[in-house]
Every structure is written in structure tokens, then in C-alpha cells.
Amino acid sequence: MINRNKMKLNKKIYLHFLSGLALLSILAAAAVIFQERILLFPIPLHQNHTYRFKHGQPFEELFFTKADSVSLNALYFTTPKPKGLIFYLHGNAANVQRYGRYAPDFTQKGYNLLMYDYRGFGKSRGIINETTFYTDAQMLYDSIQQCLGFKQEDIIIYGRSLGTGIATKLAADNHPRALMLETPYYNIADVAQRRVPLLPYNELLRYHFRTDIWIKAVKCPVFIFHGTNDWVVPYQSGQLLLPFIGNPAHFVTIPGGRHNNLRTFTQYHQALQNFLQESAAPPLPMPGNG
């Protein structure tokens, strides 16, 4: 009788063990799906695609070619007397056809705006990985100075969602005028852990985007916008960056704001205007005009 009970107990333990392994396998698969289906969702465009925007802001389509012959597509929105240039690193989905509609938020405040598509997004070509996110951004940043005529102190780096991690690393490695982050994350593992807990994401994820590390090395002012109802990048993940930005007033909480609608709030536009004024310099001469 004792042996039978012991065998039943061992069988239950074994079944629980198998169930646990199955659950972990399902969760691990969810982690893979998280990074492939949610973290990155590029939408390519045909090379003959013509960009059109209802806002009517003047812009130029540019192509930047890296040393490995990869071509990156960008849109350059201009103003008559720019106060500086905003280098915009967009989110995880779509392409600059979508994000170009946000140009007036910046150009109407007196700033030129450059936004580009990551590899595999829009008209940009090439195979992407975490390293190329960073090296491509640095190449574009250097090109802003070499080709568009702006000095580092004229450049504001603006990251949105996925782009906030890339933007933070770029700011840490350079000396821009300011860094602005819309719906940022502490790091990708933190976001994943809040979605599907218990897994060792540092080992499972191929993309890490360690904003929590790089932000400590940023030397310029940092400004953050985040909504309390953000289900993509939880507000709590962005809040973890607050101790590293120096001035608590530079973290703007938008009550009820979700991941993709902050620009529908007056509070966002007022905060953006205030941040730009705080970091502003006198208007610049047009690049190339002395």
C-alpha cells in the first residue's frame, strides 16, 4: 500500500513537472511572438511610392547610403528660419508615410524635422538587428551635421515608442541640444515581463534596448511624455526613468493618454512648446547661407 501511494505521488509530481514544462514552453513561444509580431512590425513601401500629406508642409525625400551599401529613406521637413532640427526616431510599426503627418507639431513651432525609416521599413532596405538600429541612427546623425549643416547643439533627438531606446543611446553617445522621449520604456525586458511574467527575458529576447543604462550617460536635458492608459508600453515602465532625468518637471504625465493618441491632448502640445522653449537657442541662419 505504501509503495502504491508513493508511486501515485511520484506520478502526480511528474505530471505537474510536465505541465510546468509545457506552460514554460508556451510562455517562451509567447516571448518569441512578442518580439517578432509586436516589437517589430515593418510595413515596406514600393520604391515608386509618392509621399503625400494633407498638412501641406514642404518636405524633401532623401536617401542615405551606408558603407555596407544599405539605403535608408528619409523625409526632411523644412521651415524658413529654423530654430534647430528635430531628429525623429519613430515607433515599431508602419513607416514615415504614417509618421510624416506629425510634422506640423514641430515645423509650426519653428523646427526643421528629419525622420527616417529603419531597415525593412518603408523604402529602406537591408536586414535589421539591434546593432544596425544604433549604427544607422549614428550615421544619420552625422549626416545631419555634414549634409544638412546643423551643429550638434542645434539638434534635438526625439524618440517615440520603440525609437526612444535608440534615441537615448544616440544622445548618450553624442552631444545634442536635448533628448525628448514619447512613451518610453525602461528596457524591452521590463515591457515583456509586464505582459508575460516569469520568463528569463534577458536570455530569450534578441532585442534589449537598454534605455535604463544609456540614460545615465546622457548629458543634455531629457524630457518625457507618457500617458497613464498606455497598454503598449506601460506608464509604470516609463516612470522608472524618472530618477535619471534630473528635473521631475521634465516628466509629463498625461492622464488618460494612450500609446498612440498623446498628440490629441492639449497638455502634450503645451508641454512640447515649453520644452522647446526651454532648450531653445536664437534662430539659426539657413544652412549653406553662411
Structure notes:
This protein is an alpha/beta fold and 290 residues long. It has two domains: 1-39; 43-278, Rossmann fold. 38% of the residues lie in helices and 17% in strands. The protein contains ten helices and ten strands. The strands form two sheets. Strands 2-3-6-4-7-8-9-10 form an eight-stranded mixed β-sheet, sandwiched between helices. A two-stranded parallel ribbon has the order 1-5. The relative contact order is 0.12. Residues 14-25 have low confidence and may be disordered.
In the CATH scheme, the class of the largest domain would be Alpha Beta
Number of helices: 10
Please state the average pLDDT score: 88
Q: List the strand order in the largest sheet.
A: 2-3-6-4-7-8-9-10
Query: How many separate domains?
Result: 2
Any idea what the CATH architecture of the largest domain is?
A: 3-Layer(aba) Sandwich
Termini separation: 96 Å
Q: Describe the main β-sheet briefly.
A: 8 strands, mixed
| Secondary structure category | alpha/beta
* CATH level-4 homologous superfamily of the largest domain: Alpha/Beta hydrolase fold, catalytic domain
The coarse silhouette is globular
Q: What is the H/E order? A: HEEEEEHHEHEHEHHHEHEH
Q: Beta fraction of the residues?
A: 15-25%
Number of strands: 10
| Estimated helix fraction | 25-40%
The CATH topology of the largest domain, please? Rossmann fold
Uncertain runs are 14-25
Rg measurement, Å: 22 Å
Brief overview:
The protein has about 290 residues and is an alpha/beta fold. It has helices at about 1-40, 95-100, 105, 130-145, 165-175, 190-195, 200-205, 210-215, 235-240, 265-280, and strands at about 40, 60-65, 70-75, 85-90, 95, 110-115, 155-160, 180, 220-225, 250-255.
